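Long-time lurker, first post. I've been practising inverse folding by hand and with some scripts of my own, and I keep getting stuck on stretches where the structure tokens seem ambiguous. Below is the full token string for one chain I'm working on. Before anyone asks, I'm not after the true native sequence, just a reasonable design that respects the backbone. If someone could post their per-position residues I'd love to compare against what I wrote down in my notebook.
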């Protein structure tokens, strides 16, 4: 009887020391660019694109969703590769560069610049309704400031809602990339119109 008890104890100890199998973490990017809006004329205008400000709720690499108003939750096994602001800034720069209309920089120490483009991510979340359908909502505010005059040239808020085609978190990532590409398209048109 004692031998059986010792044997069972050893089996238990050995099995408890084996590595626990965890579900892998899925990491995703915002990296979709809109179709380029190419201008035939090039202006000698330099735009400094600052790092987007972001609502603290979304200033994380966690992917946000909401099941009911006023409540934010985050996926536990699915994350962004960086914060939305860190992923969006290079996309804003590339979208503006793709116009072949401006010189675009991301650091004030790099060169002289004529305009400052400040953006703020107000919302980036998946929203579920009571029927388990969902959409991704993205809202961005943009402000163009003339450096010489130190005056706001124009401001605009953009909001995009994209349906999520499926229930997996990856489906929300696809919708978020579509939403950000549409926001970038609208932002690029806004800059071209103002400048």
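-- Answer (accepted) --
I ran through it position by position. Result:
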């Amino acid at each position: 009887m004692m031998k059986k008890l010792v044997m069972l104890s050893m089996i238990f100890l050995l099995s408890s020391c084996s590595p626990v199998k965890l579900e892998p973490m899925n990491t995703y990017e915002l990296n979709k660019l809109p179709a380029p809006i190419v201008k035939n004329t090039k202006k000698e205008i330099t735009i400094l694109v600052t790092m987007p400000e972001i609502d603290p709720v979304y200033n994380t690499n966690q992917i946000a969703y909401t099941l009911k108003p006023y409540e934010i939750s985050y996926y536990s096994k699915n994350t962004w590769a960086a914060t939305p602001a860190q992923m969006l800034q290079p996309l804003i720069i590339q979208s503006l560069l793709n116009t072949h209309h401006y010189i675009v920089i991301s650091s004030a120490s790099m060169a002289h610049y004529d305009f400052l483009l400040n953006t703020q991510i107000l919302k980036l979340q998946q929203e579920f309704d009571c029927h388990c359908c969902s959409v991704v909502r993205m809202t961005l505010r943009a402000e163009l400031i003339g450096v010489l005059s130190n005056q706001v040239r124009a401001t605009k808020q953009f909001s995009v809602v994209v349906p999520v085609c499926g229930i997996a978190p990856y489906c929300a990532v696809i919708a978020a990339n579509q939403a950000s590409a549409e926001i970038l398209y609208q932002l690029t048109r806004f800059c071209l119109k103002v400048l």
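A couple of notes from the structure itself: The mean pLDDT is 90. The CA atoms of residues 52 and 119 lie 5 Å apart. Happy to go over any region you disagree with.
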